[in-house]
Amino acid sequence: MASCDDTGNPTILAPHLGTTFKNVAAGSNVTLSIDWWDHLTDTDVSFSGLSPSRMALSPLDTETRVGLEQCFVDVHPDTRVWLPD
């Protein structure tokens, strides 16, 4: 996970090695959950679970893809070998 978006949205590297992302590449839907707990002591937890942001998994143009890959590798250099084709 890396923050490669101007709005601070996370970027998740999803290589086609795992069955989940192979299925996505073939057109299946997927649901991913990201959970963080450091805010629980600072807020009222009686909020809607639907209010957090969503993400979209969609094909990217080459320029965007290359930029995201470089950002991700800058944060996690060892992941270069896991970049999708």
From TrEMBL:
Coiled coil: none annotated. Pfam families: CREG_beta-barrel (PF13883). Residues 3-85 form the CREG-like beta-barrel domain. InterPro entries: CREG_beta-barrel, Split_barrel_FMN-bd. Transmembrane segments: none annotated. This is CREG-like beta-barrel domain-containing protein.
